[in-house]
Amino acid sequence: MKKCLFIVNPISGGLSKKQFLLELENFCRSEQLEYGVIETANEGNDTRIQSAIKSFQPQVVVACGGDGTVNLVARNLLNTDMEMAIIPLGSANGLAGDLGIPSDNQKALQLLLSGKIRALDVIAINEDEYCLHLSDLGFNATIVENFNRSNLRGQLAYLLFFLKSLFTDHTRNYHFILPDQSFQKKAAMVVLANGSRYGFGAEVNPVGRPDDGHFELCVFSNYPWYAFFSVLFHFLTGQLKSSRYYEVFSTERLFIKADRPVELQVDGEPLGPFDEVNAILLPRRVNTLVPA
Ligand SMILES: Nc1ncnc2c1ncn2[C@@H]1O[C@H](COP(=O)(O)OP(=O)(O)OP(=O)(O)O)[C@@H](O)[C@H]1O
């Protein structure tokens, strides 16, 4: 009998989880899975998850929520051989989308039985933060910061803060240090990408795979105001590689120094303004159930 611990975020995606909890219970009973459920809270989640893992000893820990919930579960499974499953119940579900995990709850639950394991890389950021999907500095991180501070959820809210962000200055002079090169550049947005697409569908890192042993540094250099819609067009249509304002570098290590602090977000969670980012790839750290 497979033992599954479900970590359910009651607020993700702005959705009530009442119906999902019933589905989960029916599924586990009919498939004879031994299961436990804990809901996340505003804080103290690492301690609660660690103590639930210790007492229940699950084989699979299931993140039921958005990218923030997946990140929370994953960082508690680093250096263990437990498996992680994902039920995408967030606003954007970026990593789940990249991994091809179905948005239908029943189909996603089925992966507990029929999924294959993909060992995902993780980017360690400033030592104690971990990124499974996408982190960035500047333009998008400011949107995420505003989004999280408000009570609004959903893609419409993201659009609202996107418009607000257009009128804020995000450009910084950056110094990038990679193992084989270092360079300086003025940029509006800098992405550390383990995955490829943002949850709203735009592909920021066409060469990105979350288990290929490296991550990408994607730099949106400072474009003149009249080029904004051209960059946006290339971004939304998956043609960033042909934009003169976009560059991508694959690496396993990266140090970034900005001339002034700038917003940083990791897997959709705003961490505040930073002027230094140190990123190191931890290869194949989280055994994740994905469609076979
Ligand atoms: N019980 C709770 N009450 C308030 N906030 C919570 C609670 N549980 C978790 N959170 C917060 O939820 C956030 C994570 O949400 P998550 O990313 O899973 O969903 P989302 O933001 O709707 O989706 P996505 O990241 O895919 O856009 C974290 O900031 C966490 O602190």
Automatic annotation (TrEMBL):
Alphabetical list of SMART domains matching this protein: DAGKc
InterPro entries the UniProt entry points to: ATP-NAD_kinase_N, Diacylglycerol_kinase_cat_dom, Lipid_Phosphate_FormReg, NAD/diacylglycerol_kinase_sf, YegS/DAGK_C
Domain DAGKc positions: 1-129
Gene Ontology terms, MF aspect: ATP binding; kinase activity
A GO-annotated cellular component: plasma membrane
Keyword terms of this UniProt record: ATP-binding, Kinase, Nucleotide-binding, Transferase
Signal peptide annotation: none
The keyword Lyase is assigned to this record: no
Domain of life: Bacteria
PANTHER family on file: LIPID KINASE YEGS, SPHINGOSINE KINASE
Protein's recorded name: DAGKc domain-containing protein
Organism: Flavilitoribacter nigricans (strain ATCC 23147 / DSM 23189 / NBRC 102662 / NCIMB 1420 / SS-2)
